[in-house]
Amino acid sequence: MHRAPPTSRPSRGHVQAWQEAYRGLFSDAILDDPTFIPRRERFWANVLADDSGRTRAALAEIDGEVVGLALSGPSETADAERQLYNLYLLAAHYGSGAGAALLNAVVDPDEDVILWVADPNPRAQAFYRKQGFAPDGPVKIEHDVREIRMRRT
């Protein structure tokens, strides 16, 4: 587990894990967009270049391959301290403990933290419930996918 990834290598792992997690929820056109990897490379380059300390990023690697990643930062809303922006794990590593380790690397246990999760996404929602999160009311629609907000206080 690396708390501050040294390169933009998370991009391909991010895209693959995102595609595995959302196939069937998001349209194939969104998931297979050929510009997604270059956009993720720019995104991670910016994240990793940010030395403000506002964001926290972590990678899970096995034999030099990125198998998971997480990113948190200031909440986008005033009613929470921190927000989990991303937590993705390759499907082959579900249930390995890597997801919990990634979460713990980017969110302190005493922080009031929120996240958005696709609904339905029973596997992810069960994972977050196990980590102490619960739905707290707000709902939004992005890319025709319903998302619920979960909070851990």
The number of helical segments is 5
Please provide the count of β strands. 6
Largest sheet, in brief, is:
6 strands, mixed
Estimate nothing, just give the exact number of structural domains.
1
Order of adjacent strands in the largest pleated sheet: 1-2-3-4-6-5
CATH architecture heading? 3-Layer(aba) Sandwich
| Pattern of helices and strands | HHHEEEHEHEE
**Please, what is the CATH homologous superfamily?**
Gcn5-related N-acetyltransferase (GNAT)
Keywords:
alpha+beta; Aminopeptidase; six-stranded mixed beta sheet; disordered N terminus; GNAT_dom; Acyl_CoA_acyltransferase; GNAT family N-acetyltransferase
Outline the fold blueprint:
Layout: H1 10-22, H2 28-31, H3 36-49, E1 56-62, E2 65-74, E3 82-89, H4 98-106, E4 113-118, H5 122-130, E5 134-142, E6 145-152
Parallel strand pairs: 3-4
Antiparallel strand pairs: 1-2, 2-3, 4-6, 5-6
What does this structure look like?
With 153 residues, the chain is of the alpha+beta class. It has a single domain (10-152), classed as Aminopeptidase (3-Layer(aba) Sandwich). It is 32% helix and 31% strand. It has five helices and six strands, in the order H-H-H-E-E-E-H-E-H-E-E. The chain has helices at 10-22, 28-31, 36-49, 98-106, 122-130, and strands spanning 56-62, 65-74, 82-89, 113-118, 134-142, 145-152. The protein has a six-stranded mixed β-sheet with strand order 1-2-3-4-6-5. Strand 2 (65-74) and strand 3 form a beta hairpin. Helix 1 (10-22) packs across helix 3. The longest helix is centred in the first third of the chain and has 14 residues, at 36-49. It is globular and about 35 Å long. Mean pLDDT is 87; it is low at 1-8.
